[in-house]
Design brief:
- This protein is an alpha+beta fold and about 350 residues long.
- It has helices at about 5-15, 25-45, 80-90, 115-125, 145-155, 160-175, 180-190, 190-200, 205-210, 225, 235-250, 260-275, 330-345, and strands at about 55, 60-65, 95-100, 110-115, 135-140, 290, 295-300, 305-315, 315-320.
- A hairpin with a 5-residue loop joins strand 7 (about 295-300) and strand 8 (about 305-315).
- The protein has a five-stranded mixed sheet with strand order 1-5-3-4-2. The protein has a four-stranded antiparallel sheet with strand order 6-7-8-9, covered by helices on one side.
- About 45% of the residues lie in helices and about 15% in strands.
Amino acid sequence: MSSKNKSFLGDLASSVEPSAEGQERGPRLGVGVLGGRNNRLAELASGAVVNNPQELVDPARCRIWERHNRDYGALSRERCDDLIESILAQGKQEVPAIVRRIHEPDYDFEIICGARRHWSVSWLRANNHPEVRYLVEVRDLTDEQAFRISDLENRAREDLSDLERARDYLKALDLYYGGSQKEMARRLNQSEAWVSRYLDLARLPDAVVAAFPDPFELKISHIGSLKPVLKSDDDRSRVLAEARRLTEERAAGKEGLPANAPETIRALIAVVGSAAPRKKEPKPAKAPKRTGSDSVVVHSPGGTALLRVDGKDRRGVTLTLFHKGGGSRAEAEAALRDLLDNHWPQ
């Protein structure tokens, strides 16, 4: 027997039998237990130790938080296959879900993180594995804290789609941050540009989202292609019409339609690119304005300086083109034609 074990047994025996020296050992053991308890309480109070109890519970006694970031109705055997196989291989759920305790007739817990684990355990219990129980970690959280914890836990998970996360962000923007994108980015410890891309994804029209064979394939990387073609009213109407056509033909079982997200995006963008280009006829340049000297500056209809004419003598003038002033070539050519017509008639 090791010296460590001998010491442990000696302390244990001394708590039952008085020592040869009297009652010295008994009180010492009691003080040790109380002292250990006091130390533990002090650690909890200081935050050095976190005491979040874990329990194995019946998943039927847990309900999904109404603001959970996962579409629970979209879960299926296929989407949860890897998790189900892992639980079967380990004989249990390894990572606890995060829940809040509630007091309702039908439920004891509200699930903040762990909807996919809940679905998988429920499926296993209904399919020949009633012994599997739902592992949860109970916490005391506000709604805003629950949102951030749920986001942080699922941010690196590939099984949560960008679209689900984007819709969660859009709801949270008004619920917790008063519509302030800057404050939301600060609380999530992310850049405003990063948050903005997710919000743009969540704001895509429902008709566009429905046009994709699997909307959960949509990613924030696709926003750079879709957002520009939805800006003008004409382009937006063309894209929406094409999106509805794709949705209707897919529902009717038509073949040859876009099979994934990139193909669908190309199809939606193509209807804008194939539209006849709209030519803008240059407006006639405004009459030249004198500068108070022999110089005359010609401006575009929008007020942009296009060129300056400096009179030198009766035989000629000096012409200066403001090619970096913001005017277009068509406007400059129109201004030159007006000058020639006025000063050098045919």
